[in-house]
């Protein structure tokens, strides 16, 4: 057993309840889209909890929100810990909130126990990790890591015509108590606690996932253009039916990509057809493809295969097609030293643990490009996430946050003398 600092599990569970009430859905989930009024309310609550403990509050131009607890030497780069507060439209109460509130619990534990860390520790709540309202996902960490906003971001709109640029400005303005800080900045390390969002830990009966890296993600937008025509009068030979072409493409992709490779993931999660009338042949169909694989070259190969299939099928169906990338994130490998610290801390608490790769993308992916980063996973019931029924047992929540706390203390000391 470690002599390390024990977190206050009850406080953390109460915080999770309080944040789950912001954007709560009748089915027990959370709808807190990035940069929405609910997201702003969650950010305001986090800032007020931080301010109450004397942490300094700041936000950058991407609305990434930071709570800083100073250390002995504040000239040292901070150790960053955190996650995100936005959710999917029918999201769960743990995705993102767990890592963000566990990071707050770590800062509060250090404060309660008067622990002086070698350097500062900063909580970060990243903006728009989900990407379901405004593409791309992991927006805030990407802007932090690259120092620049993605190309064309000002023109990005949500399904209701809301502009990303306007919503970002309103979100920044809603937190005037946060000091402005420049984008980016050096850090000694980055740690993120998250639910696994998959079934592996539960299946193996492990409490802690020691995450070694994250698979790559590519988002594509496929547009099929045909011809609007009468549903009742137009014979087969005269049809340029964009929906018939889209359906064929999707069926072919589902029948080939994942069945051929157990590591590949392909999802069509969004489809719009125009004009969308029951008795009109659709003239345009636009659908998304979420493509993932642990190997970057394999993502390239699959994308080329998709483009070939799309144009071939569209041509055969008398339509035109185009494919556009809306997000492209290469796979990442985490820092061996931080991975070792996470594993050692889990073992020191006698928590069963397992090394694994992440199927979901996370803000840690972008941080890993800039400096040492690692993640801690805890199981979720049935592996279910991006679902209102997402659930993590209280003892799993507490174990994950405890490992985050122990790893924070270990990392802030180890990386300070590096
Ligand atoms: C993150 O939300 C992902 O889609 O992996
Ligand atoms: Mn998440
Ligand atoms: Mn998510």
Give an account of the 3D structure.
The protein has 418 residues and is an alpha/beta fold. The protein folds into two domains: 9-214 and 331-416, Aminopeptidase (3-Layer(aba) Sandwich), CATH 3.40.630.10; 216-329, Alpha-Beta Plaits. 35% of the residues lie in helices and 22% in strands. It has helices at 9-20, 37-52, 97-112, 139-146, 164-173, 200-204, 242-260, 296-316, 336-348, 364-367, 394-416; strands at 56-59, 65-69, 79-84, 121-126, 179-180, 189-195, 208-214, 216-225, 229-230, 265-267, 271-274, 280-281, 284-293, 320-329, 332-333, 353-358, 373-378. Strands 1, 2, 3, 4, 5, 6, 7, 15, 16 and 17 form a ten-stranded mixed beta sheet that branches. Strands 8, 10, 11, 13 and 14 form a five-stranded antiparallel beta sheet that branches. Strands 9-12 form a two-stranded antiparallel sheet. Strand 3, helix 3 (97-112) and strand 4 form a beta-alpha-beta unit. The longest helix is centred in the C-terminal third of the chain and has 23 residues, at 394-416. It is elongated and about 80 Å long. The site of one manganese (II) ion (MN) has 4 residues, from loops. Residues 130, 137, 360-361 line the site of glyoxylic acid (GLV).
């Amino acid at each position: 057993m470690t002599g390390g600092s024990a977190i206050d599990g009850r406080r953390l569970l109460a915080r999770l309840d309080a944040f789950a009430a912001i954007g709560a859905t009748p089915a027990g989930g959370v709808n807190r889209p990035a940069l929405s009024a609910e997201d702003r309310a969650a950010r305001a609550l986090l800032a007020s909890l931080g301010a109450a403990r004397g942490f300094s509050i700041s936000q950058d131009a991407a609305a990434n929100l930071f709570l800083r607890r100073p250390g002995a030497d504040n000239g040292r780069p901070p150790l960053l810990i955190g996650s995100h507060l936005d959710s999917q439209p029918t999201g769960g109460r743990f995705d993102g909130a767990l890592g963000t509130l566990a990071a707050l619990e770590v800062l509060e534990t250090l404060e309660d126990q008067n622990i002086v860390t070698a350097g500062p520790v900063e909580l970060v709540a990243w903006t728009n990790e989900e990407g379901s309202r405004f593409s791309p996902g992991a927006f805030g960490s990407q802007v932090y890591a690259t120092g620049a906003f993605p190309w064309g971001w000002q023109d990005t709109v949500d399904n209701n015509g809301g502009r990303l640029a306007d919503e970002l400005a309103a979100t920044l303005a809603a937190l005037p108590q946060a000091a402005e800080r420049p984008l980016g900045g050096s850090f000694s390390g980055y740690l993120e606690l998250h639910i696994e969002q998959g079934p592996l830990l539960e299946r193996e009966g492990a409490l802690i996932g020691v995450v070694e890296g994250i698979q790559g993600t590519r988002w594509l937008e496929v547009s099929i253009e045909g011809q609007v025509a009468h549903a009742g009068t137009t014979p087969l030979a005269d049809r340029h039916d964009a929906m018939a072409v889209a359906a064929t493409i999707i069926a072919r992709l589902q029948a080939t990509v994942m069945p051929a490779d157990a590591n590949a993931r392909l999802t069509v999660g969004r489809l719009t057809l125009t004009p969308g009338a029951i008795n009109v042949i659709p003239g345009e169909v636009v659908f998304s493809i979420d493509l993932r694989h642990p190997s970057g070259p394999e993502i390239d190969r699959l994308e080329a295969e998709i483009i070939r299939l799309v144009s071939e099928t569209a041509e055969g169906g008398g339509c035109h097609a185009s494919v556009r990338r809306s997000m492209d994130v290469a796979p990442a490998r985490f820092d061996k030293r931080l991975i070792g610290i996470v594993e050692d801390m889990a073992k020191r608490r006698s928590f069963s643990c397992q090394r694994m790769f992440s199927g979901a993308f996370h803000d840690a992916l972008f941080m890993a490009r800039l400096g040492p980063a690692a993640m801690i996973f805890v199981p979720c019931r049935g592996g279910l996430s991006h679902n209102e029924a997402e659930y993590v047992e209280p003892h799993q929540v507490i174990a994950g946050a405890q490992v985050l706390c122990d790893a924070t203390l270990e990392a802030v000391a180890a990386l300070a003398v590096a």
